[in-house]
Amino acid sequence: MKTVRSKPSSVFYVALIAIFVGGAGILYVMASRASAVRQPTRIDPTLLAGTKAEGYLLGRPDAPVQVAEFGDFECPLCANFAVVTEPDVRRRLVDSGLVALRYYDFPLPMHRNTWSASHAAACANEQGKFWPMHDRLYEGQMEWNSQATGDPRKVMKGYAGELGLNVDQWSTCFDEQKYALKIEANRAEGDRRRVNGTPTFYIGDRMLDGTLTYDALRKVVDQVLAERKSAAPAPAGKAPTGRKGPPG
């Protein structure tokens, strides 16, 4: 007896084509999303030889106490400090001339969109608005972070417009990654200082990691000032008073 083999119906071929087309579409969307953000490549350290890690200064460069923050724009603890604590620090310590803040980029590898944020801020700095962009990025972190979008540029471009930047100039700067060396130099400075997480602060020469309240930061500032005062030479003809504190 002959075995009769049924011919595949046209429905089978239609279904097969649909699966193929659908799969190709998914792959295309995935590829598009992956290419929406330019992934950074580690820069050859020799290229940084002429690039100084300057960070971004807020306050008087000769303020008695210098506070350096190594931050990651996508770091939740950094956002907490920027939104909750830093306004008080600026109003009560920076505006009075007692403290200067200096922000250094320290993008962490697990945060896919943080390099885009560092570029957004650097390009705003080109137009004199680093700190307004710094604040807007942290305030809107949930709008552009890795969980929220694969295209942070669109959100950040909107911020540039809100802040009154020349958006075309900002966009060109961002797309060309004009300040990649500057950002990498800031990150390398963190490595040099043995920073391994964000936020990390240097108050004088004291290293503190994790977010700080205003009171905690002010306490360390006061300690640094007191130690410097006790370590200062006594005026001629007068005996020194107090004990010398640890190195400031």
Looking at this structure, what is the CATH superfamily?
Glutaredoxin
Question: What class do helices, strands and sheet pairing give?
Answer: alpha+beta
How does the overall form come out from the CA principal axes? globular
**CATH overall fold name:** Glutaredoxin
Termini separation: 99 Å
Task: Look at the structure and give the mean pLDDT.
Answer: 83
Give the class-level CATH name. Alpha Beta
Low-pLDDT sequence parts? 1-37, 240-248
- SSE ordering: HEEHEHHHHHHEEH
Helix segment tally:
9
Number of domains: 1
CATH architecture: 3-Layer(aba) Sandwich
The fraction of residues assigned to DSSP E strands is: 5-15%
Could you give a short account of the major beta sheet?
5 strands, mixed
What's the number of extended β-strand segments?
Answer: 5
CA radius of gyration? 26 Å
Work out the helicity level. Answer: 40-55%
What keyword list fits this structure?
alpha+beta, 5-stranded mixed sheet, Glutaredoxin, disordered C terminus, 9 helices, 248 residues
Structure description:
The protein is globular and about 60 Å long. α3 packs antiparallel against α4, α3 runs parallel beside α6 and α3 crosses α7. A five-stranded mixed sheet has the order 1-3-2-4-5, with helices on both faces. The N terminus and C terminus are likely disordered. The protein has a single domain, classed as Glutaredoxin (3-Layer(aba) Sandwich), CATH 3.40.30. The protein contains nine helices and five strands; from the N terminus they run αββαβααααααββα.
